[in-house]
Amino acid sequence: MTSDRVGDMITRLRNANLVKTKYVLIPKTKLTLEMARILVQEGFIENFEEIKPLPLYIRIGLKYKEKKHITKLIRISKPGLRVYVNRNEIPRVLGGIGIAILSTSQGIMTDREARVQKIGGEVLCYVW
């Protein structure tokens, strides 16, 4: 187990993407569930589900050969150096092609949702 859940999730997704596996197991927390929900909503992964015999994990289905799939995941805010932005400094990833996942006072959301709601927060990662 690791204390950095977001870093662990990003590393597992990146490694699974490199070897082209269909599914990857990720430890289940509220944060990883919300990040998986955003990745499904934005079309970067196929689906995610809680595994019944192992309730501490979620299984994420990756997709390949699609128009929109994960090509790169970059961790921005780390336990040793948190990166916060206000509503005017929310980054655009590759001119809007990718997404930034933010942790805000209203919950976990994408950069577009944060701009619409006019709130800033901690930048967790970039995905494209």
Describe this structure in words.
- With 128 residues, the protein is of the alpha+beta class.
- It has two domains: 5-61, Ribosomal Protein S8, Chain: A, domain 1 (2-Layer Sandwich), CATH 3.30.1370.30; 73-127, Dna Ligase, domain 1, CATH 3.30.1490.10.
- The protein contains three helices and eight strands.
- It has helices at residues 5-18, 30-42, 111-117, and strands at residues 23-27, 45-50, 57-62, 73-75, 84-85, 99-104, 107-110, 121-127.
- The strands form two sheets. Strands 4, 5, 6, 7 and 8 form a five-stranded antiparallel sheet that branches.
- Strand 6 (99-104) and strand 7 form a beta hairpin.
- It is globular and about 40 Å long.
- The two termini are 27 Å apart.
- The model has no long low-confidence stretch (mean pLDDT 94).
- Part of the 30S ribosomal subunit.
- Keywords: Chloroplast, Plastid, Ribonucleoprotein, Ribosomal protein, RNA-binding, rRNA-binding.
- InterPro entries: Ribosomal_uS8, Ribosomal_uS8_CS, Ribosomal_uS8_sf.
Lay out the secondary structure.
Elements: H1 5-18, E1 23-27, H2 30-42, E2 45-50, E3 57-62, E4 73-75, E5 84-85, E6 99-104, E7 107-110, H3 111-117, E8 121-127
Antiparallel strand pairs: 1-3, 2-3, 4-8, 5-8, 6-7, 6-8
GO biological process, one term: translation
Protein name: Small ribosomal subunit protein uS8c
Subunit structure: Part of the 30S ribosomal subunit.
Give a brief rundown of this model.
The protein has 128 residues and is an alpha+beta fold. 27% of the residues lie in helices and 30% in strands. It has 2 domains: 57 residues, Ribosomal Protein S8, Chain: A, domain 1 (2-Layer Sandwich); 55 residues, Dna Ligase, domain 1 (2-Layer Sandwich), CATH 3.30.1490.
